[in-house]
Amino acid sequence: DLQICQHRAPTCCTKKMEESYQAAVRRERTQSIQALNFELKYMIVGHITAFQEAFESLLRFAENRTSSLFETAYRPMAKEAAEPVKELFTDISLYILGAETTVESAVLRFFDSLFPLVYSRLINPGITDLSDDYTECLRLTRQDINPFGHYSKNMVTELSKSLWASRMLSQALSLGIEVINTTEHAALTKECSRALVKMQYCPHCQGLTLIRPCVGYCLNVMRGCLASVSELDAQWREFISTLEYLTNEMAASHDLEIALSGIWNSINEAILHAQLNGPQLSATVDKVCGQPKQQEGNLSSASIVPVKEVTETQTFTMAHTSLNNKRREFINYMKRSRTFYASIAERLCDGDLVMRDSSTCWNGEDVV
């Protein structure tokens, strides 16, 4: 009653043993593909972590630099500006990780929160009553009167270019892991598991426990079993090319590090622009939002902190070099894996599974 290991000679197998062999080849096939995938998956996961750590390091640096701008140049509003600054960099981090948000919405939300502070602490430092309604009116007015000139739009443009490539790379790496995980658990067809049993275990039914399959025979069986997986070859090669393109984009004109290091300067220029246009802004705001309560008497100019450029002793050099090295090392490794799916059958038939450099091997029917 044997279904797979039928042979003219006497056999020591039963139908139940055949079923056990089918379970064994399924398990072994999954384990052997997992072993092949391990190094590739390990490299991708390692680089996802390394890239993320480098991004976070650069974001922290840029956030600290921006916070120090307010503490040194715009002290009257530094405490209240801390939360909008934190939100801006959190939004940027979420965007890189693939969240459903945009750079434009993050930056414009930041400037919406910033305008009431600039207006009440720098342009009209005598305002005492900043009610929720008045603050909300200032936020909405910001969108119409554009107090920060072209600087807010420029910041959106610069960050969008550089962060887009980082976001795409982050998503592409996650997709790579997903593809590898899916191939590990691809279901074996009935024909495939029977062919694997015939190749690996049917010799045992004849007492030939040490004989191993012939190389050509193994390749034919594995190619048949892995036809659906090897079809990924063209897409995998395209995937590697896309990774290469994205890493080049990040390293070239859309440089993430330069864009992040320039955030504080864009904000500084935007605030300066608003201050220079203070009288016109005040006239427009008074018409739209009404006049808020002012302190009695004239405010002395001494209480207005003069704007000065923030001097920054630290640099992005270390994080920049680290990120560039990681990109280069990663893409070189990934380029070597271009043929990963095209050569999967060859690699599964390598090593101990087949008989090499010997005069005898199993061809599926007999020893040859």
Describe the model.
By secondary structure, the protein is mostly helical. The chain has 15 helices and no strands. The protein has one domain. The two termini are 26 Å apart.
What descriptors fit this protein?
368 residues
SSE map:
Layout: H1 15-73, H2 75-96, H3 103-123, H4 132-145, H5 151-184, H6 190-200, H7 202-205, H8 215-225, H9 227-230, H10 233-251, H11 256-261, H12 263-276, H13 278-289, H14 317-336, H15 344-348
Keywords: Cell membrane, Glycoprotein, GPI-anchor, Heparan sulfate, Lipoprotein, Membrane, Proteoglycan, Signal
Protein name: GPC5 protein
Function: Cell surface proteoglycan.
Question: What value does the average pLDDT take?
Answer: 85
- Give the helix tally: 15
Counting structural domains, the number is 1
- Taken from the alpha-carbon principal axes, the silhouette is rod-shaped
Count of DSSP strands: 0
Pattern of helices and strands: HHHHHHHHHHHHHHH
Q: Unreliable stretches, pLDDT < 50, 5 or more residues? A: 296-315
* Class by SSE composition: mainly alpha
Helix % is 55-70%
Q: Sheet bearing the most strands, described?
A: none
Alpha-carbon Rg, integer? 33 Å
**End-to-end C-alpha gap:** 26 Å
Content of β-strand:
under 5%
GO cellular component, one term: cell surface
Protein name: GPC5 protein
Keywords: Cell membrane, Glycoprotein, GPI-anchor, Heparan sulfate, Lipoprotein, Membrane, Proteoglycan, Signal
Membrane topology: Lipid-anchor; GPI-anchor
